Amino acid sequence: MNDTIRSIATIMKDLDNILLFPHINMDGDALGSCTALCLALRQLGKHAYVMINEPVPKNLDFLECGCTTDDDSVLSDVQLSLMVDCNGMNRIAGRENAWNRGRLKGCIDHHATKAKEIRYDFSRIEPKSAAAGEIAYNIIRAMGAEITLDIANCIFAAITTDTGNFQHSNTTSRSHEIAGHLYKIEGFNSKVISALIYDRRSKEAIKLESEVIAGLDFYAGGKLAVGKVTQKLLKENGCTMDEADGIIQKIMSIEGVEGGCLFKETEQNVRASLRGRTYANMAKAASVFGGGGHVLAAGCTFTDMDLEQAEKALIPVLIETVSSPENK
Ligand SMILES: [Mn+2]
To answer: Quick one: average pLDDT of 45-68?
Structure first.
């Protein structure tokens, strides 16, 4: 059962020391939502930090706002650990110690796939929200905090990144309404934020993207497109994996593609980012391999397979997924 925005705001207003947890491979929604909440809590006189254990992607550096830390012991008495934009322990891997320090555990998320291993003291999971940033915005308002320019920037970044700049089918009137409120904040300029997020790609990243696109494989009569970011490609182009962000969107812009898959070969494992256009249930496909996400945007990780084995395992499932329009 979901707790109400009001009750969550009431609980949080009563606490002084709070840690916020974005998911691993943080994106604009995870970090933007955490930082917005962190800034609002600080404004209300609380001690709050965003707990991370990986570098912030370069194009999201403006979302840190002095809130992030990797120091487990940053607060002496943690009253609440709050998971944001995710809901399972595997999504905050490496930060279990910090998480466990919270006397209360909370969660706000918009992913329908729900982890069972945690008992939250409060949680709100809204699969219909385009971004966790929409939930964060409502909690910030309900706590009575002022939407400052920094908070507005964070919320806008959260929503624009998770909606593919308001283009994905998860975009709702509420996404636009919240963005509309942000436009009223003095100094707010969506163009500036969009440029920070989308227009700072390196020449190397563009070259990497063009090589991945050139190497795409198509299946099911062109309905499925599969790309690969290998360690070799990264090294040849002098790129890191976070510079592959955005390639999956490019794949999905190809006419006739219903399902897109981008394999990412990391040092430790093989990840697959999955996207559907209209009917392909990618969350279901991902769940076959222990992954999850949204119907049209999901992912899974292969820890015991190399890239070739992961392809052999996943592609037949994806062909089936894009070939069955009833796969909603
Ligand atoms: Mn999200």
So the answer is: 96
Q: What digits encode the pLDDT tens for the residues 171-227?
A: 999 999 999 999 999 999 999 999 999 999 999 999 999 999 999 999 999 999 999
Residue 230 lies in a domain: yes
CATH number of the domain that residue 312 is part of = 3.10.310.30
- Within a domain: 219: yes
pLDDT of amino acid 328: 55
C-alpha–C-alpha distance, residues 20 and 25, integer Å: 15
Q: What is the dihedral of CA 71, 73, 74, 79, to 10 degrees?
A: 130
The whole-angstrom separation of Cα 159 and Cα 32 is: 9
pLDDT at 13 (0 to 100):
97
Sheet containing strand 224-229, edge to edge, reads 217-219, 224-229, 259-265, 270-276, 297-302, 292-293
31 CA distance to ligand 1 centroid (A)? 9
135 CA → ligand 1 middle, Å: 10
- Residues within 5 A (CB) of ion ligand 1: 29, 85, 132, 162
Same domain, 173 and 32: yes
Residues 189 and 208 in one domain: no
User: What residues make up the domain containing 286?
Assistant: 203-323
328 found inside a domain: no
pLDDT of residue 327: 56
CA of 112 to the centre of ligand 1 (A): 11
